[in-house]
Structures are given as C-alpha cells and as structure tokens.
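Support case: user asked for a sample of complex input and structure output to validate their parser. Sending the pair below.
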Amino acid sequence: MITEEAFTVEPWHVRETRLDLNILAQSESVFALSNGHIGLRGNLDEGEPWGLPGTYLNSFYEVRPLPYAEAGYGYPEAGQTVVNVTNGKILRLFVGDEPFDVRYGELLSHERVLDLRAGTLTRHAHWRSPAGTQVKICSTRLVSLAHRAVAAIEYVVEALDEFVRVTVQSELVTNEDQPEISGDPRVAAVLEHPLEAVEHEQIGHGALLMHRTKASGLMMAAAMDHEVEVPGRVEVSTDARPDLARTTVICGLRPGQKLRIIKYLAYGWSSLRSRPALRDQAAAALTGARYSGWQGLLDAQRAYLDDFWDSADVEVEGDPESQQAVRFGLFHLLQASARAERRAIGAKGLTGTGYDGHAFWDTEAFVLPVLTYTAPRAAADALRWRASILDLAKERAAQLGLAGACFPWRTIRGQECSAYWPAGTAAWHVNADIAAAFERYRVVTGDDSLEKECGLAVLVETARLWLSLGHHDRHGVWHLDGVTGPDEYTAVVRDNVFTNLMAAHNLRTAAEACTRHPEAAHAMGVSTEEMAAWRHAADAVHIPYDEELGVHQQCEGFTTLAEWDFTAHTMYPLLLHAPYVRLYSAQVIKQADLVLAMQWHSHAFTPEQKARNVDYYERRTVRDSSLSACTQAGMCAEVGHLDLAHDYAYEAALIDLRDLHHNTRDGLHMASLAGAWIALVAGFGGVRDDEGVLSLNPALPDGISDLRFRLRWHGFRLTVHVTHADVTYTLRDGPGGSLTIRHAGEDLTLSTDAPCTVALQPRVPLLPPPQQPPGREPTRRRLVRPRLPVSSQLD
Amino acid sequence: MITEEAFTVEPWHVRETRLDLNILAQSESVFALSNGHIGLRGNLDEGEPWGLPGTYLNSFYEVRPLPYAEAGYGYPEAGQTVVNVTNGKILRLFVGDEPFDVRYGELLSHERVLDLRAGTLTRHAHWRSPAGTQVKICSTRLVSLAHRAVAAIEYVVEALDEFVRVTVQSELVTNEDQPEISGDPRVAAVLEHPLEAVEHEQIGHGALLMHRTKASGLMMAAAMDHEVEVPGRVEVSTDARPDLARTTVICGLRPGQKLRIIKYLAYGWSSLRSRPALRDQAAAALTGARYSGWQGLLDAQRAYLDDFWDSADVEVEGDPESQQAVRFGLFHLLQASARAERRAIGAKGLTGTGYDGHAFWDTEAFVLPVLTYTAPRAAADALRWRASILDLAKERAAQLGLAGACFPWRTIRGQECSAYWPAGTAAWHVNADIAAAFERYRVVTGDDSLEKECGLAVLVETARLWLSLGHHDRHGVWHLDGVTGPDEYTAVVRDNVFTNLMAAHNLRTAAEACTRHPEAAHAMGVSTEEMAAWRHAADAVHIPYDEELGVHQQCEGFTTLAEWDFTAHTMYPLLLHAPYVRLYSAQVIKQADLVLAMQWHSHAFTPEQKARNVDYYERRTVRDSSLSACTQAGMCAEVGHLDLAHDYAYEAALIDLRDLHHNTRDGLHMASLAGAWIALVAGFGGVRDDEGVLSLNPALPDGISDLRFRLRWHGFRLTVHVTHADVTYTLRDGPGGSLTIRHAGEDLTLSTDAPCTVALQPRVPLLPPPQQPPGREPTRRRLVRPRLPVSSQLD
C-alpha cells in the first residue's frame, strides 16, 4: 500500500520527495516511461536496489509451456510471456572508489518527479559517501514519443565541497537476475535468462548487443551511445561482451564542477528481419537520436504532449487528488499506446510483468474508449492489431468447432494463452467488445475508412462466431449458453445480459457494416440470408428479468442463487480464499457486469430499471477486479448517487498512486487508469454514444466544483465545462461549423461561433444510496471526508 | 481392440490360444491376478516383452505435484499415484545358452488360461530355440485369496527330444523401466524409479528387498523363496542387491525330464511399522506360504472361490459370451475387493495404472451394490475404508467453506487428487453415493452394526455438507447450484436431478439413522432442529421437469439447451475432440445420469415418465464413459426395450474382453464389470431395493433363454431362475425360514421349504425402441446377429 504521503498532490507532476525502499517496486511502476514500443520501469539509474528490474519491448515475448494436471481438448499448450530485455537504463557511479548505492552512506535528499507535460522522469539525489564525500546527482530520463526506437538519459554529477574522482559505467545488461515469483496466480511467471547472445559490437562511444529468445525465436537489438561534457581531462572507453556492454567515463571534478553524460538508447526487434538488417536499424535509430540531440528530444517530447493534452485534458476543480490521478492515468494511457503501432496494448502497458504482459478485453473495453475520444490514431492502430490476428482467431474458432473468429482472452502475439477456460474461452464477450470498439471508432470519428480497411472482416467473423455459439429455443428465443460475462465470480452460465446485449450489437453492427460495404461483404461470402439470420438472432435475444424483484438478472437465474455470506468471508480478494465452485453458485459479483451493460447499452434500460439494478447489484459487488470501480462510478452517477460515484471515481483513479489493489509492483492497471477518465467523463459528464449520437447529461458531486473535459467527435474538438449550475459546450473547431449533440435527452446544436451554456437540473435519485457488502465500501476520498479532530468530537 | 478371436468363449475360463503381441498390454490386464492387497498384471514370466509391467500393493502410492498454469483456491497441490512395486513374477529361462524370449526362435504353441474357479493363471508354451532345441514350459500363478500377503508360481520346464542344460533365474526386480505416458489425459502418469532401497538380504533359497517411496514415505518389503524339484544334479544360488535379488537354478534335463520350481512370494507395506517389523512380517508370510505348500495354496484358493460362486454366480443360457463375461467380471470384482480390508477399491482394481490407481464414486455406485448382494463382508470393509477417511473429508469441507464432510472425487489415501474441479469437486454426488452405499448395506444385509460402528458419522457429516451446499429460494424450494452430476458433459449446473434425489435421500437417511442411534447422534451434536432441517430440505428439493415435452430435465434448463450436432462431430470420445465449454452447453450426454437416477430412485418416477425419459435421453447419450451401458441396460429393460437392454448388457460385460473403450491396456474397468451383473440382475431380474424391500420384476430378451442368479438378503440366500414363461424363487436358507419380497409390485412370501414359481407377463413397451446418436448404437452381440453368409443374401 502506498500511503498518501508517498507522492505530493500536484496538478501536473507526480513527485516523490524521499526514497522509501518498501515501496520501491510500486514506485518503479508509477515512474515507468514508455512510448508503447519501448518500456522502461522506473528503476534507479545505478541498477540496484530494485523491486523488479524491467525493460520491455512491445510484443517481444518468450513462449513457455502451460502445464495441466488434467488437460482438456482445446487447452492452449504454450503461453507467451513478456521478457525483460537488455537493460540500457544503467549508469553506475563511483565516487572516489565507492559505489553510489542508496543503501550505503547517507542520502541527504532524494526526489523523483514524473512530469506529465514534459514526459520525463527526473531524479535529484544528494549523497554523502561512507567516506564522507558529497555529490549531487541529477538524471532525467525519457522514452521518446516522437522517435519510436529511442530513449535517452541525461546524467549529471556535481562535486560539492571537495575534489572528487568520478567514474560512471554506463551499461547495457542482458539477462538480469529477477525476483522470485509470488504465489498469487495473477502475478506473471518470471522467466530466468531468456535471451541468447547473437552479436555484440562496439560503436562510437557505445555498443550494440543483439539477442534472441530461445523458444519464440525473436531477435532484438539494443544500442547505446554517449555524449560526455566535463571541464578538464576525461577518459571514455567501451567494451562489449555477449551479455554486457560498458562505457566507462572517468574524470576529476572540483567543487561545483559537473560531469554531464547524455546516454542515447535505441531498441529494435523483429521476427523476420535478418541480423544485419536489425543491427543497422538500431544503429540508424541511435544516429537519429544523436542528430536530434538531448534538447531536441526534450522539445519533441513536450510538443507531442502539448498536442495530446490539448485534446485530452480533464480539469477537476475541488478535488486535487483526482485531478492529479486522471492526468497520471491519461499520461500512462498515452505511453502505453502512442507508438504501439499495430501491436497489442497490454493490461499493464509496458510497466511490469503482471498478467505475463498479456492484452485482454481491457484494451477494447476501457482503454480504447478513452483513446477514441482523445487520441484516435492510437485507437485505430490498436484496432489494426486486432485485425492483424484475425486469421489466428479464425483458427481458434475452428479448433473449438465454431464458425467465424474467436479472439484470445489473453495474448501477446495473438494465440490464446488462457489456461483456465471458464474465465477464458467462455468469456466470449471479448469478441463483441472488439467489434464494439471498431464500431465506436466509426461512430465517434465519423470515419469509416478503418471499417473498410479491416474492421468489416472482424465484424463479419465475430458475427459468425455468435451465430454458431447461440441457438433458438423451441419458442424462437435466442440463447447463449456456456458463457462467462465480465463478472468472473459467475461463470459458464446461460444468457449473461452483458454478453447477450453485446452479441446482439455485434450481429446488428456486422449486418449494417455489410450494407455499407456490399462488395467487400459479398467477397467474404456474406449473403442476404446470413445477414437476416444475424438480425433475427439479435432481435430474439433473451434478456433475463426477475419480474418479482423488478431487476434484471445478470444471467438466467442469477437472482435466485444463494446469497453469499459476507460475514463468513471477510478476506479479499475472495478468489484467494474461496473456491470457484462456491463463488460461481452464489450472488457475489467480482466486478460490474450487468452495470456495465447498462452503461454501454444505456437505451436498452429504463431509468427506473437502471436505478433498481444499480441498487440490487451494488449490494453484491465486491470489486475484486480493478475494472469495476469506474463502471460503478458511471452508473451511480447516472442514477443520482453522485457522492458514491465520486468515491468510485476516486478509487479507479488512485488505484496505482495509492496501490489500492496491492499489486502495483507488477505494473500499472491501464484499464482502471482509463476508468478514471471514464468515471469523470461518462459518469459526471454523462457521455454516451450507444445510439450513434454524442449524448451528454452532466451532474457533479458535491466534492467537485468544476469539471472541464475535451472530446473529439467527427473531426470536431469539443470542450465541456460543467459546474453545479450549468454546462458550457465550446465547439473549438471542426468540419462545417455546427454539430448536433444530445443534451439531457434533447437535441442541441452547437456552433464553432460561440459557446453554448445550458442550465442543469439537480439530479434526484429514485432510491437512497445503496449499501455495499460489509467492508467493501469504496475507498473514500480522504480530502473530502477528513477525520474530525478529537476536540470536535467532544463538542 | 481385441477381436472376438482373441479369447475363446467358455463358461469358466478365459483362454488365449496364441500369443498376439499387439494386444499384450490388454491381455496383461485381462490376466491380472489380485486379492485386493497384491496385484500382479499378467506379464510373461520371463519379464519381456511387456505392454506394461505391473506389480501393485493396495494404497501403496507416491505423491506427485499437480501443476496448474492458472491455479485457484482449493486446488489440490499434490496427487497420489499407484507405484509399480518390486516385481516378483520374473522367472527367466535359459535353454542351453539362449534366453527364452517369445520374439526369438519359434513359438510352436502358446496358451494362457485364466481359470475363474481355480483362481489361477496357467501358461503353456512349446518353444524351439534359435539353436533348434525344443522345450515345454508350464507355469501356474496365483495370488492367494486365503493368505493376503502371499502369491506363488509353479514353473515347470520339460526337455523334449534332446538333452538340454536349463538355467532359471528367479528374480525380485525393483524400479523396472516403464513405457512412456500417452497423451490421453485419462492415462495415469507413470513415475520413473519411484523406490529407494532400504534393505536387501538373502533368506533361505531366496531373498528379501525393502524399499521406500521418496515423497510419500511408505515402506514395502518383497520376499521370495523357492522349492526346486528335478531329477539329477541341480545347483541353486542366490544373490541380493539393492534393486535386484536373483535365485539361479541350473540343471540338465534329458528328454521327458522336468524341472519344477515353486516360487513363493510375500509382500507387505506400512506407513508406520519399523523396518525390522516389516521385514519380519514379509518373512512370516513367506514361511506361511511354504507351510501351506503349493497344493495347499491351490486348494485354499479353490475353496474360497467355491464359496464365492455359491453366492454370486449368474448363469446365462443362450448367450455364452455374456455368460463368460459376467463371470469374468465377478471374478475380477472379487479379486479387487476380497482382501482389500479397509483400503480403497480403485477404478481399475490392482490391474493397471489407469486413473493413477485412484478410487472414484465407481466403488460405491457400481462395485459395492454387487458386493453387497454377493460378498457383503468385502462391501463392509470397503465402507470402513470410507469411514476411515472421514476426518480428511471434514478438513476438505472446511477448506471449501462448507459444513460436514466432503469426500474426494478421486484418491488413493483419502486426500482430494482431482485437478479439474468442474468434474471433481463439483461432483458433490460422490458424498451421497457413499451415504447410499452405507444405507444399501444396511437394507440388504438387514444388519445395522456397520451403521453403528462407522456409518452414522458418515451419514451425519454428509447430510451436513448437503445442507450447507443447498439453499431455499424465496418460495421455499430447495436448490443445489454449482453441481456436476454423473454426466461429465454437463457440468456446474443447477438442480441436477440425480444429485438432488441423492442429496434428499442422504438427508432423510441421516435423519432416520440418527433416530435409530439417538445417543450416538447426540454425541455428534445432532439436534432435533438439525434433523428437521435435513428433512425439510429433502422434502422441498427441486426436481426439474419440462411440462411441454413431458420429460424430466437432467438439470434445470437442460431440455432447452442447444441440440448437439452429431453429424459434425463423429470422433469419439468427444472430450478428445471438442472443448468442454461446447459440450457443457449442449444436449449431449456422456453417461447415464437422469437414467441412473430412475434406476436408483425407481419409486420417484411413474412408469410413463420412465418410458418418456429413457426415450429422450437415449437419443442424446454417447456413452463415452464406461459407466453408462449397464445403467442404460437396466432402464431399457424396465421400460420394455429388452433387446436393446441386452445389447447394452453385452457392451458393459465385454468392455475388457473386447477392449471396447480401447484402454484395457491401462487396467480393467471394475465399474463396468460390476455393471454386467447389474445389467443382468437389476435389468432382466428387475431387482430394486430403493424402498427397503427386495423387489423383483423379471423379463428376458429374446437372446437369453434362461437366467439364474443368486442373492443374499437379510441373511437369506436366494436363487432366482428366470425363463421367458416364469420365474422361480428358491429361498435356500436363512433366518426364520420365510421372506417377503415384492414381485412385479405385489408382495410375495417365500419359504425355505419349497421354491415358488410365478408366471411372467410379456413386457409391453409404451414407446418404440429409441434411436441412439448416429454411430453410437450399442456394440451388438455378435452371436445374436451374425452376418448372413453371401449365399443366403443371394436367395
């Protein structure tokens, strides 16, 4: 757990003012830098101590066997695991003849700052060596958003009150030692020494190392070069070995003098390209980095981020913690996706090895909705990645005896890597989530070129999957059996409402897309009859509803299952303390499921149904998944429990800055960080798009005085400024000059000429705020509900 | 597959007239000898070739880790695997200087005979060595039913047309090489070299080897001694090493002269006893064997079997294959159980390593019903084993967050070893099956001393399990969710009819037993309120029924699931060709489930319901489990499909003699072999006991002219002789001299004074014979439906 003292609350920075080795692994995740292609955990420059040393390349993975004591047909035999690649972050410092190590000598001050506008991680250390010599170290690290293959570090050492001889070893290190794996099944397996040396050479004031994975046969190159500035004599030498390259800089510094090293890093990998081609690719990137120079890289980084924030920023007045957290989340979302370029966006981005580095439905369901509104090019690239694995998904469907395509529940490269089918293969909804992400991209951007390019095939093949998965009963009602919805505490059921609504949407969307692209559809063998069958199934889909209780059933029969005994089970997450067989058969919910269905298919539920359903499911949801709080925020806001929604929004946003799920050490929770935006924008902004129209219905909780957020819609850039009294829509620019949106259910036409302000009605909830299971109330916002001082209590 | 030529059809023998190395592994299972404590596969005396070398001691196992790619709470971490112990069967023969090996030289004749009355395996071989020397070898092997720790072999070599120097090496061999494991998940893991040497010593004309398992820490001793008879000079020498003891006999034989060796074997193991104690135990058993002598062992064996057959024999006129097969099955059932003495009866007995040597519900559900009527002492011992692991079952229930006791789905020692919970932990019915076996023992024997001794505690703790598993819905109906019934193609469901009826029976039986033993119940904390809660749940249990179709639902909603596409899936067993998630959500049934419920709870269904249910479920049952055919036989007979029932009875009976499931190599199918008896006695005899009364209602298929079977009931011995015209009940002896049974629904009082003959009415089925899924018709009885010769077809 990270206490609230760990990082100061500032609008644009995450600042750690003293080094706490107990949360080193967590801070490495928080301070991770990435551009979606290269990921560097926030490890200390000098390499140790570490919580988890980590350097990652998107989709660079190793294959490992998946063992089963009792195997079954269709179980994947091989898994894919993210690999800790050659570490280029290391700069070891010797002060005199003593190594700079924060565990020795005296750390007089230590500060690390993640700057969300500069896109850099800066560290200031003031250290007294065991021999009493003081130095100041300042390093600044960036992973370039503008130059995909490049990272760089500025490393400055300053002598203070005496002359000191300074030695810096700047390294590339392959096959670093890793910590032992935890017993928690959610933590990724750690692979030991996964890389085989291919080539090593010295280049300029640096070196290049090439390695290959043993089983997956991927080749990578890492290269470094250096600029050194120092008054007086300096010697720079480099040697390279198979798993280690080292550039050594040695000089003497008088008090006030500084040694400044710029370390340029270039990374590349390929499954296809030859050794010389890959070697030259890394060398070229390195040359490019030197050509830009340190300041050039800094400037390009800031320009990239200025552009991003201009379209994406969310301003939260009155709640500085959420303000910081939502920007922190957006920053990491951008880092995970900016230059992923047709590679997967993992659940942890490139910030750690959690979940083996796999991508799940999280991407399409939580990350892409945010990117589609804020960085649509990154969203399109992520969707192109999905389309690129369509053939693998078709093979998987065929293996399962199904038509169409079945996308993997968890994967890096595209093959199914889920070893537990009730919460993997049976979670078919991932296919509809992907289809919906394509459709959302089209609806929000107004651009159907991506659909034409690759989305149509995905829509058609996923529709075919659904048709072969479902069946019409003897009364013509269409059912989906053997289905696991988002809630992983209720698995392999009939007619999960979320899945059924998503499948119906997938079927209808595919039919509509085929109508838009008749020739391409025809070429895929789609007939009028097939489209009719899709629409017929979608229209006949069963949505279970409990008439007696007046609530929807998360799945058939759900509301008649045994109630979970929350008083007998007080250890969370429940999955580590109770067997699946008991969880599955009780009314206990891991994460928003029906509630998510109501957010995404808002028009399929009446306001009263929403209010009653939220009330029912709140009492049974334990939020053992990090994907839940943001959705609960969104729907609690809609039904009028605004303060509760604020609590959930806080929980989603602060998940990693406060380590609320106790596993930030393994990497950041991209979906929950995206959820912070969703909670604010879809929750308090009331943004919905499920009817193809940009629809808003804002309402703020007491703890937020002003909320300002930006959206892109059909080429328009829109700013929404919500207060308790009114909302102001500012159409900044866009095609044609006017845009019709829906505000509180009524059409409203906006013009680029002038902002439009509308008064807000207070939101009155139908029901009182619901209770959560005992002990599972949302993490309260500390600033909003401070403990009363003792004297007040006595009054 | 074993063709019908492999074994001749004889009433009391299983004879193989030529050695077919292609079915060597299968014949090793068929010719396995055991007494329930020691098991010897039918390996050739000379040790090789083999299909699977096998020597087993009941409950002597090794622990192995159970791996999971994604583990979950409550998954067992360690499995138990039967160990191939020290092999005492080996007698290697050298003819001149050439080893006797059936793969070399010329095998002029070779015959093996399993004698079901003598309890021996005899082998005759006539061999010409590569050098042209002819010998005859005759060996007879037995595992003593009368002396639990003893096996013996008579080995005779005869010189034929020339003088020959003969050398025999009689051995004890530990840690034999094993074949590689198959990819089929049903085949047991084979452990390599599982035994560590503890002690070896020479004793008499033999030796003793002691070993210990590495992980489970069990110690075993194997000892051998020899008697040698030969005209002329003979030298006998023995040496012993840690993993090998060898007694060498060398002599010369003139034509017509014979060397005769009697090899006595003794085995023992313990988890507790000291090395000297165990050593002396084996030595004492060996001394006892020599004291009995070979003829004494043969005589005792036959006497034991005479007694068994007198109570157990079934005579089938008109169907010699089934006649042979049912006796073969009863013989192996006796072998698996006779001297198991409070150890588990594994699904394969001690005939192979299939299913890791584990015991399942098969024991209580199929094996014990037969033993209870034919060898009740063995049944009582098996039940005492279950009672002995009650504490482990209570620990397991507590681990799962449940009350009472949860018995393992598969185990050797008592700990849960099932690594796939949907077909393991969720198959809660095993607990009710065990309870029912206790109750059946009480009902059939009329003896409640076993209940008092240990059954009551089992009944109470299993009832407590059920009450904590189930729940009353808001209308008071009692449901069981998260349940897998016998059918493993439909898992983790609501209200499986079989499970619900069994649970209700368990609850009621426990309440009644507590009423019979009030003080013992009170000591277990059973209150009047608890008993009332049991009865209340049992009375409120939900039995799903499809009103529209007029059939019961195997589980809630079953009849509304998608129909399985049998034309698209033609490879069996389906579990090797389709994923569970698809099987579970379709109307495809692995094995009798609702149909078994109707057999065991006959009174809970009307005749019309039975007919309609059989008709419905026959069409959807693929019999991928060997536990199915016998039950289908029983219920098809009851509803009047007598020829179809005969086909199923044949399939159950011939499973191993014809290798119908292609895995007889891994051991025999004890439950199916028991099922042969069940199919004849419960099927054509119509025996039921679910209302506490011995009830019969016989009817024969066309292919059987006479059926005669014997039962024990309340101390009576009853013979039932069924023809197409009538049935004759002969009460041979018993307490009081008269017994009231129920014949065709009417009470009938029998007397030991005279047989009672009753005319039979022809059984008229309500519906025409049902179809099975395409290609899944029962294996037809070849003798009944011979192919017409070509000439006839031309007529």
